[in-house]
Amino acid sequence: MTLPLEHLRVLDLTQAMAGPFCTMILGDMGADVVKIEPPSGEVSRRAMGFKGKGDDTAAFIAINRNKRSLTLDLKSEEGRELFYALAREADVICENFRPGVTSRLGIDPDTIHGINPRLVYASISGFGQTGPHSQRAGFDLIAQGMAGVMSITGEPGGDPVKSGIPLSDLGAGLYCAFGVLSAVMVAERTGRGQAIDTSLFEAALSLGIWETAELWTTGRVPQPTGSAHRLTAPYQAYRTSDGYLTVGGNNHKLWVSFCEAIGRHDFIEDERFATNEDRMANRQELEHEVEAVLQKRTTEEWMEVMGEHGVPAGPIYNYAEVFEDPHTIERGMLEQYEHPVEGTVNTLGLPLKLSETPGAIRRHAPLVGEHTAEVLREVGVDDERLAALRQSEVV
């Protein structure tokens, strides 16, 4: 099977979440991702999350599939020379060190482009390579706070709440993958690579589409709205007799259909709810009136009713329930592979489906240095030199 990115060799110097997510996406689409780790292994192998049968955490295993692992001491001269040899044959380097670290190691974009001018060099950091905050340590939580995300998440009047998923990390990883592919296309046309600079802060900030629209149009500082939309109603979660139902009645046609579904035709002409602007101005009253009706039946019963009336609606699942839904399985979002230590491992499937050249899960998350010999032989390191490198702890 042909994979869309199988022609790309990626040197992966990333760790934790944002960078490994980027390189996993590239690997899922077929890129040969060589994860270059310090001799002790990447930090998230030991420091983050639950452990199964082996030493690696579930967090590491979840985000490092489709990669080969090479251990390399980049602080040693011989380690750097080996890295340069790898860079000569590579198409992409991804790193998420704090700005300045790659210069101190001698593997910065200028140095690498002197070795391989066509290489794409991608950097993810907390706040970017420039600017007054560039040297600050960056974590998802910090970026969410400074990008405004925590100020609009949660219930009105409540304490600041972070997004349940690390959207700063994951957003930066997605942007970086998009940047890599964009720059690779340019390199294939021109023969020249370039540096990519993205950050957790900018990823989180760039996702604030509705919030910045509200700020710049009205002058109001956006506030948290719970599950409700800040621009349209009804568009939120409502209580039922046994849980919650999410409803999207965010245009006039859907609003009328929703009123018909819940048997409240009078809402259509009610001056409090006649237009979207009216519903937004009286959203709390609308919520009270709607829930008084919805709490008379179960979520499942209302799902059937909403379906009959063409109203977008859904239950709120916990993660165990997500994987009990046959749609999740039918869409291939639960896959399994065999790991040499953990045995059969569940993993999230690929959310991107290509009709002719789909991605694939081809490799388990690697053990520390599992592919060191294999990768170094590809750049001409023989067994005698490999033994010497191991003896000197360069690899």
From TrEMBL:
Keywords assigned by UniProt, alphabetized: Transferase
UniProt key word Glycoprotein: no
InterPro entries from the UniProt entry: CoA-transferase_III_domain, CoA-Trfase_fam_III, CoA-Trfase_III_dom3_sf, CoA-Trfase_III_dom_1_sf
Keyword Transferase: yes
Regions that span the bilayer: none
Superkingdom field: Bacteria
One function term, GO molecular function aspect: CoA-transferase activity
Record-linked PANTHER family: BLL6097 PROTEIN (PTHR48207:SF4), SUCCINATE--HYDROXYMETHYLGLUTARATE COA-TRANSFERASE (PTHR48207)
Name the record gives this protein: CoA transferase
Species assigned in the record: Egibacter rhizosphaerae
